[in-house]
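@channel anyone free to eyeball this complex?
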Amino acid sequence: MVDLVPPLRIILSVAVLSGCASLVPQTAELARNGLPPGLPASVELKQTPFFPQLEYQCGPAALATVLASAGAKTTPDDLVPQVYLPERKGSLQVEMLAAARRHGMVSYQLAPRFEDVLREIAAGTPVIVLQNLGWFSAGWHYAVAVGYDYDSGTLVLRSGTLERDVLPFAAHEALWKRSGYWAMVAVPPDRIPATAEEKSWLSALAALERAGDKRAARVAYRTFLDRWPDNLNARIGLANTHYALRELGDAEAVLRDAARDHPDSVVVLNNLAQTLSDLGRGEEALALIERARAAGGPFSAVIEKTYATIVERLGREGGGVDRLK
Amino acid sequence: MKSVWARMLCRLLMVLMVWSPMQLAQAGLIGTDRSVVVEFLDRAEVARELQSLGVDLAAAKDRVAAMTDQEVQEIAGRIQAVPAGASDAATIIIILLIAAAVWWIWFRR
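replying in thread with the prediction:
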């Protein structure tokens, strides 16, 4: 009897709030299948800070909540100029993801699964969710999920001016579903979210690298490679952050390893050649870039440029090119 | 005629402003984020759209710089159409009261 009560409650709330379980399919699934394996029945991240939102500014408030929770020193006021759009009185999803990177965090859009939100919370990571509260027109709203209780089927959120907003799973799903189940986390670069998938997590790191925080990106790539040591693109990314930070010896070491495991990668050959040329080892560089040129492929324009640079530098060093040709 | 040239010059300057810090980054290396090649103008376009929605130029430039090529493409020309989390506090409280009331009536009575 006791075991039956929680799913029953969830199913009832599904029926009440939507009239039909298919309108909140994920809640129905959670009720049907029971607590997903490995998850505690109840979690609440009570330490998560609370920034009550000012008018329309749920974006900065929600983002500040997860960034501060990840260890960044920031407030909603700091984030207004980074994510808020005055004329739209709101914040775009893309900018929520982008702004987190400016604080040295890796932002990651979760797969559109309720279970993943629960998994992140259970792993200690608060999750930003985008709900649509509007009945007749769009009423987009960011809130931060910080806890859940499976037995009562409720989610705890920092939302608007409410520090502890307790919503039934079904109510939350009905509001959340309308954003295509959009959810994101932001974590320090030495962590990997509980639900991160190799490929999408790597894209998140490439985005951090691109956005400019090379030191954070370097840490993040190392952490990635501890988990997935064979990933070639992560090795290239790590080497590129070393290169950008002018740690050429480290860049070389990473690329040498990559070249040993992936001798046919023209990207590795090109980047290693460039690095060696910068280190003043033009002849080694030339040998490598010749191999990349012979292979051809979609990067031949860049490879030709690298080749030209190497040849030019060797020429400046005193007739080396003629000798090598 | 003059205004056409002025506009073109502005656009060109904006492209250069938005792009120069990134262009300096890594000459000669092939990066990991190479799935999509974004036209220069997409970034300038997004910066201009942010500006038209009340963000000042320097801030708009920084905001675009934090986006990936894919993100830029996702919103270029669509900033008015994509969702913007915006609800004011009053709406949120009303919605939550309704949800809480339903919950209370069905499960706590």
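from a first look: Chain A touches chain B through 76 residues (CB under 8 Å).
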